[in-house]
Amino acid sequence: xxxxxxxxxxxxxxxxxxxxxxxxxxxxxxxxxxxxxxxxxxxxxxxxxxxxxxxxxxxxxxxxxxxxxxxxxxxxxxxxxxxxxxxxxxxxxxxxxxxxxxxxxxxxxxxxxxxxxxxxxxxxxxxxxxxxxxxxxxxxxxxxxxxxxxxxxxxxxxxxxxxxxxxxxxxxxxxxxxxxxxxxxxxxxxxxxxxxxxxxxxxxxxxxxxxxxxxxxxxxxxxxxxxxxxxxxxxxxxxxxxxxxxxxxxxxxxxxxxxxxxxxxxxxxxxxxxxxxxxxxxxxxxxxxxxxxxxxxxxxxxxxxxxxxxxxxxxxxxxxxxxxxxxxxxxxxxxxxxxxxxxxxxxxxxxxxxxxxxxxxxxxxxxxxxxxxxxxxxxxxxxxxxxxxxxxxxxxxxxxxxxxxxxxx
Length: 409
Description:
Blueprint: H1 11-24, H2 26-32, H3 40-45, H4 51-56, H5 59-62, E1 70-75, E2 85-89, H6 90-106, E3 114-117, H7 126-137, E4 140-142, H8 149-159, E5 163-166, H9 168-180, E6 191-194, H10 201-211, E7 214-221, E8 224-232, E9 239-241, E10 246-251, E11 265-271, E12 282-288, E13 303-304, E14 309-310, E15 315-317, E16 320-322, H11 324-331, E17 337-347, E18 353-361, H12 367-379, E19 384-388, E20 403-405
Parallel strand pairs: 3-4, 3-5, 5-6, 6-7, 17-20, 18-19
Antiparallel strand pairs: 1-2, 7-8, 8-9, 9-13, 10-11, 11-12, 12-14, 15-16, 17-18
């Protein structure tokens, strides 16, 4: 039996939510059986649900409401494989909108702000989620979409944009452009809401220093409504997750046993209020940890750490697990190093693995050697460093790929 993790919600709320999911979804009914959830041990006996199962199950077979009650569908970006299609009822849209508005409030955004959304629209959840939350808050909303940096800056100046939403990669691109063209005094920016990809402290510092703003990491994924299901508060000590809408477990990705508070593991979610595409012990593949203590900000919502990577993206180099977050940790502390990087894993003819980290950096003497030493200490294997000029690595409006495994498996 799988061990019991901490329950942030009542057993009765879990039992009710799982009962609705079973009753409405033929897939979940067959998967979960009919045993009630009377206590934490019963909940821990339920099987996990995986992304692969959602991908392979037609969304109408998975849905827990009739097709007539589905008002919208979205799909994931497909970064890690086939797109995952998820259905939404009118109540799902309403709940998601209010959750995202809550994120804006946690970031100090008010109806007096002017919010420019440089995020993707269409089947992806980002654009419509960011927009609905901003409009619910009552802020002036500017749906500029991704790309076209010159248009973005023109709109910022003309509209007096104070808040923007973007991926970390695109926010970094905007920050570098503003610095290069000395435009900061022409802008009114004060807050950035950043989501959709893992990003570290080095990138955060570059964005904040370049634009003179405070940034907030927002949590979410298509399966879990979309972005807006969690956010940092002004203390920036983890992300608050909305426990009135879903329950979070942290488990060891190999054993699937719960891990202690403070220990990194895989985030597993069970939705409490989602109607059309409910999730029961869904393995998100996101790697994070749970904070044991309530946040000093006074919020009742529990916290998880900022996402460190994905369990299905991590690679082993000479038997050692490597995660991009380890690179971020080093770059944030080394003077002269940029925040953008690529990690290339390869294998020679003798079967020996190699790890080359390509990093943007200045011309400070000894920078490459210092980075190589620090990477080796942080990761646990020898690392070769390839320094490239600032701005050479790609900045994308969407998600940026940073780990390239060239080995034949």
